[in-house]
Specification:
Glutaredoxin; alpha+beta
């Protein structure tokens, strides 16, 4: 009977240790260069010492005619991205999934909050200007204004 209790406690300890390790890894306490924070479609040779979070955000919103700061699991982010995917944007469209960054997620959201007045995701930028989030993107599309903004920003690729 004592052997079973010891095995149960050991199993519990291993499970707790596993979840704590996963939490630490997901939180991103390790220092990683900015180059690994960028998605595969953005091959900048930046390191974390080259740009602050604020500078990185500014670089992205000015580099891409359509820039979305998102979280992959967020329904509002999914809504905005699915609307934008209806248009032929190709390389003029970029998404940075904040939940997939190894660190600085809160820093990005804090900076986006300072810049746009809201730290929630998604934050959708067209021609360097924040148009809002998922509901705002949807409302612009329903009013027939989104395509005009995308064309004005030269984001839509005409064949």
């Amino acid at each position: 009977m004592m052997r079973v209790k010891e095995c149960l406690w050991l199993t519990l300890f291993i499970c707790i240790l596993f979840f704590v390790t996963i939490y630490i890894i997901r939180r991103g306490d390790t220092k990683v260069g900015m180059g690994s924070l960028l998605s595969s479609s953005d091959k900048s040779s930046l390191s974390s010492s080259d740009l602050s979070v604020a500078d990185h955000i500014q670089e992205l919103i000015h580099k891409y005619p359509v820039m979305v700061f998102s979280k992959s699991y967020c329904p509002y982010s999914k809504k905005a991205k699915s609307i934008l995917l209806k248009y032929k944007l190709e390389k003029n469209y970029h998404v940075l999934e904040l939940d997939q960054l190894p660190s600085k997620v809160d820093d990005y959201q804090d900076e986006l909050g300072k810049l746009t007045g809201a730290r929630t995701v998604p934050r959708v930028f067209i021609a360097g200007k924040c148009i809002g989030g998922g509901d705002d993107t949807s409302a612009l599309e329903k009013r027939g204004e989104l395509e005009g903004l995308l064309r004005e920003a030269k984001a839509i690729v005409d064949e």
